[in-house]
Structure formats: structure tokens, C-alpha cells
Write a structure and sequence with these properties.
The chain is 37% helix and 13% strand. It is built from eleven helices and eleven strands. Helix 3 packs parallel to helix 4.
Amino acid sequence: MIIDVHAHVYSDPKICSLFGTKPFLSAQQQISIMDSKGVDKAVILPLNNAEAPAEHQSIGEVLSICEKYPGRFIPFCNIDPRLPARPDLICADMFLKLLQQYKNLGCKGLGEMACRVFWNDPSLLALLEACSIVGFPVLFHTTTPDNNSYGVLDFMNLPYLEFVLKKFPNLKLIGHSQAFWSEISGDLKWEDKNSYPLGKVMPGGAIIRLLRDYPNLYADISAGSGLNALSRDPEHAWSFIDEFQDRLLLGMDYCAIDNDMQHIEWLTDAHNRGKITPSAYNKITSGNASRILNLFSN
């Protein structure tokens, strides 16, 4: 089985993204890509934070797509932590009722979280606490305050992410984006943090330290950011995958039908050449997602 943990799928997409010239994928388009690449299931990540660069999407639409194509999609929910208008009432209970409803309807996690607030914002902490209580992993996009983009705000070495990892040890956080994956290398410069650095991966990367220190951190290898972090230094990639094979998740992150995401091909080639073990390949392509999303618990 192959599970793609990072997909954006719509019933009838109309609006082009802010960074593209075409709408995101319809369910039929997503399934055609899945079939061509041998993907059995894909996680639908609704984009509804204010800064989200694409058409906003209701949880009802996500659930309807899953019902229309049984067995092919896995629903995630999403809540903007800034929705409550009463700062004096901020607490996990504000979000628990919604999250429990989403869980009862079949949602398996929350994401893609892309709000431009710091990790220690009281509303975001309340939402994360609620996710921890209901058992939802959170897939996030991170960026820096100076970058004109979407994502939870952090700095070099991801200190605010570490704060949350420490505060909520039972909350599984799944990292994604340029500002996350660029931290794989210890020689990262500020001007490269939100990009796709090339060259050898040097010791001292924040991601490696955080993965070692916090068992609740996972990493989504989707988009150019994830694949670049691995392919920029293949010899490092083999040891990285071997060490963290229980924490890496396959994703692709198609944002238009004419994207060409080569994550499965890269992993399959590495497996066929004996660079990664069959066990690691199976964990990354399906086993880890099945485990942390509790796909076969019911």
C-alpha cells in the first residue's frame, strides 16, 4: 500500500492559487494521478487559514469527497486558531467540541495548519492542546516573520517549534515547508531558510536534533522542500532515512494537474538500488501513516 499524506483536493475547484495560474486538483484529477503512481489513499488537507494561498474549503466538502470515493481519501480537518473573539476565554475547551465532532465524522488529524502566528500564541496553544486531547496529529507549514508567505512563525533553529514539542509530548507534529526542511543542514543561512538550499548537508541541523530529542516530531517529505532536502545530498539521505525511518511520511503536495512530483519514483529507485531497506521503504510509503493516523483501528 502507498499513502500520500499531503493532498489538496476539491469537488469542483474554480479559483487559481495566489502562487499559480491554475486551480488545485479536483477529486477526479487527484485519483488519476494516484492511479498512475500506484497510490492507494491520499490525505485531504483543507486550506482555510486566512493566509492560505488557495481556495478555502469546508470540512463538509472534504467529507463529501471521501464519501463519494470510498477507500481513496482520508479526511483531515482544519480550524483557524484566531476564530474565537474573546481573548479572556481562550482555552482548549473552545476547540474540543468542534474537533470531537470532526473525529466522530472520520477526520484523522488537523492540517495543513498555515496561520501566520507564532507557536506560543495563546489561541494556537489552546488549539494544539485540544488536538492533543482528541488524539489528532497536526501537519503544519512554517515560515519566518520576514517572509511574505503563509505558515506558523518561527526563527532559525526552530525554537518555538521546540517549545511546543516539549509542552505537548503526546501531540504528534508533522513538519513541512521550505523553512522546516532547510533546517536539515547545520550551515543554513537566514537568507536561505525559506528556499531550497543545495549542496552537502552539514552536521548540526535543527531538524535532526529535534527528531532525536522529541519522539512526537514527524516529517512530511512532500513538495520541493522535502524532496530537495533528501536529494541534495543522497549519501546523507540514506543515513537520515535509516535513522528516522519511523518518523518520515510520504507526501506529494500537488497544487496543479501539471505538477510533476517525483517522490515515489525517487524512493522506489533508492529502494531498488539497495540504498534504503524494504522495511524503511514500507514505513515511509504507508506504515508510519497507518500507525499515527490509526487507519485500521476501527
